[in-house]
Amino acid sequence: MTEGDQVSEWAATKASAKGFLICLTVLSLVGAAAWFALTTGLERLPSKICDGAVERDVVIRVLPRTRTAEEGANQANMGEDLMFTCHVNTSADSILSGMARVQEASLQQWLNHYGEGADSRGNAVRVSVDGIETLAVLDSHSGSSSVYISCVPRGVQAEDATEPYAIVAEAGVIGKARVSGAALRQAVTDFAYQITKHTYELADCQAPRTLPHDLPRYEED
User: Fold this and answer.
1) What's the pLDDT score for residue 128?
2) Where are the alpha helices (DSSP H) in the chain?
3) Which of 48, 76, 129, 197 could cross-link with 83 by S-S, CB 3.0 to 4.6 Å?
4) CA torsion sign, 201 to 204 to 206 to 208?
């Protein structure tokens, strides 16, 4: 083989290797783009979901990546029968849902209902601030949380009730969550609290007060 032939062969080999690298890069970019498109369903939700009640970032903190995600809300009745629900369903079979409703319930009744069984298992955590009560329960993969805020809806006669009026919310995850431990507990509680604040506005509570933007953070596990 002549020196010229060797140079030509080396140039062809170099061009072939360069072409292979370009193809590999293009395929990698296409694959990454396809993966991103198939796992960003939550990011394509509105910045505030459920009639503006919940920030999308809270949902992203809770649910795993998914190809598609669907959110929805429903308000039923008014006054002492007011109820508001919010849900996010994903193609990854994970669901985050919550419900807030006006009801006659003392603080102790709420604690007995949501905390008694959880306390017996030693996995309930309670946080209180300015008359707002939260109780979160955690297991290895999912979490649930409840929020309690005193509220007498406009048009309701509190003296006719056998127990104080309050807005009670509960929220939880069905299926896998993105995080675990204190991070999951906190994110689900934040979701429940945002639903509670929205319902507080819908109820037009008598002697209303300004609710804090966020609740105190839970301690790390």
Assistant:
1) 86
2) 3-38, 56-62, 107-121, 181-203
3) 76
4) positive
Which residue is associated with the tokens 């939880």? 172
List CB contacts of 122: < 8 A, sequence separation 6 or more.
Answer: none
The secondary element (H helix, E strand) that includes residue 90 is: strand 83-90
Residue 39 has, within 13 A of its CA and on its CB side, a CA count of 9
Nearest C-alpha neighbor of 199 from the set 73, 102, 114, 97 = 102
Please state, in angstroms and rounded to a whole number, the distance separating the CA atoms of residues 207 and 42: 37
The CA-CA-CA angle for residues 68, 72, 74, to 5°, reads 170
First and final C-alpha spacing in the chain:
72
pLDDT at 180: 85
What pLDDT score was predicted for residue 6?
A: 47
Contact 144, 137 (CB under 8 A): yes
Residue with tokens 């919010």: 86
| DSSP classification of residue 40 | B
- Ramachandran region of residue 70, left (φ > 0), alpha (ψ -120 to 50) or beta? beta
Quick: pLDDT tens for 170-202: 999 999 999 888 888 899 999 999 999 999 999
Strand-pairing partners, residue 136, are 125, 145
CA 98, 100, 101 angle in degrees (round to 5)? 145
